């Protein structure tokens, strides 16, 4: 690891405390009763794989939902100066199957690989009206597009998904590439041509466990009020962008576990060790999660956390 990366905060000063679980995380265990390890291994578990940035794959039995896939990750110069071309081979290699693809907002680092993944798998691209415009731009048929204004239960096989209207956080005092998309943008797009549109926090109810995905650095308390989740995928940038971001999210949603996301620079190759986003203070983020009463599960790129569903 280059020393200069440590100096400017791109690399951790000590190894990151990744959670590599030997056996599934179990709600019953968290509540104080013992879970037989053999039973835990034998139960049909829910798995959540982290794709970097705000991307996740949630799988249980035959159902697979993908959130905000962004595997292509062009380098910083290419990202700033060139059209962004999804890496179809890389997408196929790492996400061979998807039933539905949920998009939190239409910025490139949340949506770029969504349409190609849908083309490869036949999955629906589900998100805001802006997400629909991006899907149209990429050539997806109407049959694979589902737009929502939020607060709507959408059946995804035996699961239910619901987008809760949210806000895009300010990064260094301003919202990057603000606005909406009412017509299809150029495709492949340049970074600035993808405007965020309506931001949605996705609640994925698998029938046994609920997973909430907050992929932006802000949210609306009233939208989260009354919701509960077992697992919260939470954007680490938010801690710098919104007062009491971690504490409020956890006190509203009462998750047992929090999987941090959006803590890397997203301009390193997917299969390389990621660089830390300077200023995020990932270890401080983990401490705040613990102080708020949840267990952080810092997951390496392409790492998987497994949960028992009983
Ligand atoms: Zn964004």
Produce the secondary structure layout:
Layout lengths: L2 H5 L19 H4 L6 H6 L3 E5 L5 E5 L2 E5 L8 H6 L6 H7 L5 E3 L5 H4 L2 H8 L2 E4 L1 H9 L7 E3 L5 E4 L2 E8 L32 E7 L4 E5 L6 H4 L6 E5 L2 H4 L3 H9 L3 E5 L20 H10 L3 E2 L7 E4 L3
Parallel strand pairs: 3-4, 4-5, 5-6, 10-11, 11-12, 12-13
Antiparallel strand pairs: 1-2, 1-14, 2-3, 7-8, 8-9, 9-10
This protein binds zinc ion.
Zinc ion binds next to loops.
Mean pLDDT over all positions: 92
Figure out the total of helices. 12
- Describe the main β-sheet briefly: 7 strands, mixed
Bound molecules: zinc ion
Please provide the ordered H/E string of secondary-structure elements.
HHHEEEHHEHHEHEEEEEHEHHEHEE
Pfam families: Lactamase_B_3
InterPro entries: RibonucZ/Hydroxyglut_hydro (IPR036866), UPF0173_UPF0282_UlaG_hydrolase (IPR050114)
Organism: Paraperlucidibaca wandonensis
Protein name: MBL fold metallo-hydrolase
């Amino acid at each position: 690891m280059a020393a200069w990366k440590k100096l400017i905060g791109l690399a951790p000063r000590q190894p990151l405390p990744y959670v590599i679980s030997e056996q599934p995380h179990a709600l019953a265990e968290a509540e104080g009763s013992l879970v037989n390890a053999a039973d835990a291994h034998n139960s049909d578990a829910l798995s959540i794989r982290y794709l970097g940035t705000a991307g996740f794959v949630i799988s249980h039995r035959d159902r697979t939902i993908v959130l905000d896939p962004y595997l292509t990750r062009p380098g910083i110069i290419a990202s700033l100066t060139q059209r962004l071309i999804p890496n179809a081979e890389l997408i196929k290699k790492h996400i061979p199957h998807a039933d539905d693809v949920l998009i939190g907002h239409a910025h490139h680092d949340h949506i770029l690989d969504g349409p190609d993944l849908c083309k490869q798998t036949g999955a629906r691209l589900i998100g805001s009206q802006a997400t629909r415009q991006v899907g149209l731009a990429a050539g997806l048929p109407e049959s694979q597009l589902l737009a929502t204004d939020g607060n709507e239960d959408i059946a995804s096989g035996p699961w239910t998904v619901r987008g809760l209207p949210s806000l895009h956080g300010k990064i260094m005092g301003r919202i990057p590439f603000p606005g909406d998309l009412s017509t299809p943008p150029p495709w492949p797009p340049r970074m600035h041509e993808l405007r965020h549109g309506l931001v949605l926090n996705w609640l994925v109810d698998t029938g046994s466990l609920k997973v909430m995905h907050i992929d932006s650095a802000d949210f609306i308390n009233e939208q989260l009020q009354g919701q509960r989740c077992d697992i919260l995928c939470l954007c680490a940038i938010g801690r710098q962008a919104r007062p009491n971001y971690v504490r409020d999210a956890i006190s509203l949603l009462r998750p047992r576990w929090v999987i941090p996301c959006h803590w890397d620079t997203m301009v390193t190759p997917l299969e390389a060790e990621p660089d830390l986003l300077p200023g995020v203070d990932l270890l401080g983020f983990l401490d705040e999660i613990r102080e708020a009463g949840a267990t952080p599960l810092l997951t390496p790129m392409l790492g998987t956390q497994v949960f028992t569903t009983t």
